[in-house]
Amino acid sequence: MPASVAPVYARFSDLIGNTPLIDLTGLANPMVDGVKVLAKAEFMNPGLSIKDRIIKNILDEAEKSGALKPGMTIIAASSGNTGASVAMMAAMRGYKAIVTTNKKCSTEKMNAIKAYGAELVVSPDGVPPDSPDHYMNIPATLTAKAPDQYFDIDQYENQSNPNAYY
Questions:
Q1: What's the alpha-carbon Rg for the chain, to the nearest Å?
Q2: Half-sphere exposure of 113 (CA within 13 A, CB side)
Q3: Could you report the per-residue pLDDT of 95-127, keeping only the tens digit for each?
Q4: CB 46: neighbour CB atoms within 10 A?
Q5: Is 42 exposed, middle or buried (0-12, 13-18, 19+ CB in 10 A)?
Q6: CA distances for 3 relative to 6, 15, 58, 154, angstroms
Q7: CA 43/CA 99 separation, integer angstroms
Q8: Comparing C-alpha atoms, which of 108, 60, 107, 53 is closest to residue 85?
């Protein structure tokens, strides 16, 4: 019997989103015959997170539309996983990245963000949510001041986020 050959990917980013489905029906014991319970193994993305899929789609669409151009800096507010995915994808595509977060972000995520080469901005505690200095508002503030210099991921309002699921 010939050994199966694993696919060879030309780029690391080609692995993103092509994660397997795992049949958990035997563990779930569904109450209705014929029901299958499947889990999408997003932890098999290169950054170990579903956020890789989201960021890849946001960046693909932004490059395609011209909203993100060579020489621009990608900026994102994140409490952890999104920031690590942004830092990884920016490094893979040759962009500078800035990730803004707060002190609640884990040390491991902060270290990953910096290891990928992104600038990490940690907002101080107690900044009101409506302040331009709040970590969630820094990307929009910088992008508004220099729209040709920054591309704001804006993960919660960007329609490319939910469109990433297939």
A1: 19
A2: 28
A3: 999 999 999 999 999 999 999 999 999 998 889
A4: 16
A5: middle
A6: 10, 22, 38, 45
A7: 22
A8: 53
Q: How far out from the chain centre does Cα 141 lie? A: 21
Q: Do 154 and 55 form a contact (C-beta atoms < 8 A)?
A: no
Q: Tokens at residue 25, please?
A: 């029906």
Length of the chain: 166
Structure tokens at 130: 């409506």
Q: Which of 109, 60, 121, 116 minimizes the C-alpha distance to 82? A: 109
**11: helix, coil or strand?**
coil
- Compute the 3-state secondary structure of the chain and give helix, strand, coil in percent, each to the nearest 5: 35, 15, 50
pTM comes to 0.85
Residues known to be catalytic: 51
Parallel/antiparallel/unpaired status of strands 38-40 and 21-23: antiparallel
- What angle separates helix 51-65 from helix 81-93, to the nearest 10 degrees? 50
